[in-house]
Design goal:
The protein is α/β, with parallel strands linked by helices and 356 residues long.
């Protein structure tokens, strides 16, 4: 239940009778709201270890998508950061694609994925990526309208597909977070997220090792064990944590460290909803949510020195937690629902009610 699934939940509210198609579904991992819908999987869902190893089946996904029979529908919405837009709707149907990002591993982050892969994967990646890029560009013509989760993603859609996209920021449950009194804020900074290379948790750990300043890291991922080895005495790697622990740390940290480049980035919005500032790399979605020198500060290079300088600037900033909470409210779930519903209503001429 990550950002893409939260978007799906909101779409379920707008379209309470909708059917859901996906490659793989783990019923134990999704919300009751999604499970109330009819869910159909492609043949990939029946392949060995699909729930755990679905990424291994990426080369088969284009064929699987094209076998889905969508003849019964007059509106099809694909929600994708992978190849979902490659479905084939019937010609009278309207196909809207809500794009979290064109496939990162074949486009803007291809070299990072390649460099961090094993030998066998590196041998397979160039021909597979070439095939997928050709198919991905061709299937952009199967989409009537693109919607993007950020201006950053809209620019990628323009660059790779030569298509324009309307930006509708994804829903964030800002009401789940609350600020605490200033006296309850503690003496540590916080990093939250999946511990993978492109999010640059290594940069945060090294910077706080060097500053000898307290940093708490919450999240799991392939870099967890290595980060634990590299963490100095002021850095605490908690690993994955339940939501209540996450909410507790958001509200009491001095500020959130966000050193990676994200398509949108829900974590900074959650931190601001908790009344805390954000120290972020000044590229990608964070530049659309964080207000520089008001609800946080940016650093321009992914270096230890630049991050340390940003932390020092944050310490000097006259920060008001109310400004952060107000900014986070711009990305509430109901804002997304209203904007998406209005867009579809204009595109289809239909009146859409939102279910409770």
């Amino acid at each position: 239940m990550r950002g893409g699934e939260k978007v799906l939940e909101a779409l379920c509210d707008i379209f309470p009778a909708a059917d859901i198609y996906t490659h793989v579904c783990d019923l134990a991992a999704i919300s009751d709201k999604i499970k109330r819908h009819k869910i159909q999987t492609t043949f990939i869902g029946g392949l060995p270890y699909a729930k755990r190893m679905y990424k291994r089946y990426l080369p088969l996904m284009p064929m699987a998508l094209e076998q889905i029979d969508l003849g019964a529908y007059d509106l099809v919405i694909s929600s994708e950061s992978g190849p979902a837009k490659g479905i084939i709707p019937t010609s009278p149907a309207l196909h809207l694609c809500y794009c979290h990002s064109p496939m990162r591993y074949i486009w803007n982050m291809y070299n990072k994925y390649y460099d961090s892969s094993g030998l066998v994967t590196r041998m397979m990646m160039p021909p597979m990526a070439h095939y997928l890029r050709t198919w991905d560009v061709a299937t952009a013509n199967r989409v009537d309208d693109f919607l993007a989760n950020s201006t950053t993603v809209a620019q990628r859609i323009r660059s790779y597909y030569r298509r324009e996209a309307t930006v509708i920021h994804p829903p964030v449950d800002t009401t789940a977070f609350r600020p605490v009194a200033p006296a309850d804020v503690e003496d540590y900074y916080l990093m939250v997220g999946e511990l993978v290379s492109y999010k640059r948790p290594d940069l945060a750990v090294e910077a706080f090792n060097r500053m000898k300043t307290k940093l708490v890291v919450i999240g799991g991922g392939e870099m967890l064990d290595q980060l634990k080895k590299n963490a100095g005495p002021t850095v605490t790697i908690l690993g994955p944590q339940p939501f209540d622990a996450l909410r507790h740390h958001y509200a009491r940290c001095k500020g959130l460290i966000f050193p990676g480049e994200e398509d949108f980035g829900i974590v900074p919005v959650e931190a601001m909803a908790s009344g805390r500032p954000v120290i972020a790399f000044g590229r990608g979605g964070a530049t659309e949510t964080v207000v520089n020198n008001k609800t946080g500060v940016f650093f321009d290079a992914q270096t230890v020195e630049a991050l340390i300088d940003a932390v020092e600037r944050m310490d000097r900033l006259d920060f008001n937690s109310a400004d952060a909470v107000s900014r986070a409210a711009d990305f509430r779930r109901d804002v997304f629902v209203d904007r998406f519903r209005s867009y579809v209503a204009r595109a289809t001429g239909a009146t859409l009610a939102v279910s409770a």
